[in-house]
Amino acid sequence: MMITCFGKARISGKFRKRDSSSSSPPRNWTSKDDNTEEEGSKIIFFGGKNHSFDLDDLLSSSAQVLGKGAFGTTYKVTMDDMSAVVVKRLKEVVVGRREFEQQMEMIGMIRHENVAELKAYYFSKDDKLAVYSYYTQGSLFQMLHGNRGTYDRVPLSWDARLRIATGAARGLAKIHEGNNGRFIHGNIKSSNIFLDSQGHGCIGDIGLTTIMRSLPQRTCLSSGYHAPEITDTRRSTQSSDVYSFGVVLLELLTGASPAITEAEHSGENMDLASWIRNVVAKDWTGEVFDMEIVSESGVEDEMVEMLQIGLACVGVKQQERPHIAQVVKLIQDIRSTE
């Protein structure tokens, strides 16, 4: 299906399907004079031809905004048959069609139960889209931080957190195997980790950083997820992925946001990793754990083990951090989570 694309107007309720026969096309619609530039613009699917939707289905289906981030807006799109996918409209793509397609193809080759599946992608002059599996359980960020302090809050148990950590670690290890062992995720954080039907962590938003505009230095500094070296270079590595994953482990343990805040006791502004290092150095380790899980019996030793793994991952020096394969083994050794 050729030259059909999403407009840049704000979407509300539905992806509007455009009429290409209109004599007065809406703004940003591909005109006849632009057809040569848009030649080959079609939705590309992975996994053969057994897909259950096409671009027209996406355009005419109801859409709900799930979030807006540095790389674009994410929608939940529900088809006529009630199946759902996630469509990410990428707004800061800085590469041409060929490089974009090459990166999407590499992402599409990564197939693992703990990696969110890239179902399709689309490239045109006005729009670049990535279509992923939809997870009904939501993201780890929502599970950890949603409805905190309210009556209807459902706490995330330690067993659940351990299961999520194990799945996400396996997913990241699989991602790092891509591109002959050189693939980088580049944006590991709790909002990019989802829960499957079994409650295992699955990593999404894979590999977009290489085709997107670099995040501003201020964002890298304040998010709490980025390794120290990223602040200067703005270039992700597998080692910086491990650092970010370590922050997620610390987030799982504390229930706290990784972003820079005023640290309790010291009154200094520091990110989550720095705060935990500071607390542990003062032998106040017990104070870092989330109050929602500290009351669970028989799990304190396991939480301390996970804390040690997380701290190893967030080593200030790159050479101090373990390889993700080692992280997987260390987490699995805490307890069988199958």
UniProtKB/TrEMBL annotation:
Residues 60-338 form the Protein kinase domain. ATP binds at residue 88. Keywords: ATP-binding, Nucleotide-binding. Pfam families: Pkinase. Gene3D superfamilies: Phosphorylase Kinase, domain 1, Transferase(Phosphotransferase) domain 1. Residues 14-36 are annotated as: Disordered. PANTHER family: OS05G0588300 PROTEIN (PTHR48010), PROTEIN KINASE DOMAIN-CONTAINING PROTEIN (PTHR48010:SF48). This is Protein kinase domain-containing protein. It comes from Brassica oleracea var. oleracea. The lineage of its organism: Eukaryota, Viridiplantae, Streptophyta, Embryophyta, Tracheophyta.
